[in-house]
Amino acid sequence: MYVPKVKYIEGGKLEGKLIDPKTKRQYLGEFVQDYKGKFYKGTRITSKSEPLNYVVKGAEEETRLKKLKFIYRKPTEKDYKLGYFTRYFIRDEVYNRVVELDKAKYTEIRSLRKPLLYKHHQLDWMIVGNPEDSYINEHRVFGVATLNTNLALEGAKILKGLDTQVLKNPLEFVRK
Asked: Who's near 136: CB < 8 A, 6+ residues apart?
C-alpha cells in the first residue's frame, strides 16, 4: 500500500492521545495521519504501517456518561404533603435515550455544559389530587392525569422521547 506524501501529515500536536491497540498504552513516538483521519506509527505510510487509535480529550468522561443509569426515585411523605415532587431527566442525544436521575447526578451532568450531547429537563410531577377531570359550575377542573400528561408532552418538546420512554403513566405515584 503506497500513499503519496501529499495524502498524509507527519506528526503535529493533538488534542487527545494516541493509543497502541496492541499494548493498550499511550503511544508517544512518531506518527502520521492519512487523509481519512487515521493514524499510523512512523513517518511514512506503507503496507507495514501499524495503526494507532486516537482518543479525544475527555473521551473517558464521555464513555462514563454513555452508561447513564436510570435512578428510580419515589416521592417522600414531605413531597406528598406538598402535592408534587421534582423529577430530573437527561437525554443522551447520541443514543436517543432519556433517563431519570436524582438531583445530584442531574446537576453533575448539567455542569459539564455539553448541549450537543446531553439535553436536560426537570419538572414538578403532581402526586396528590383527583385523578380524573371534573366540572364545577360548567368549568372544567383538570385532574392529575391530565396535568401530568400535559407536563410529559411539554417536556417531550425539550427531551424527545420523554413521554414515550419514561413518563408513560400519568398516574405514577398519585394518591387521592
From this structure: none
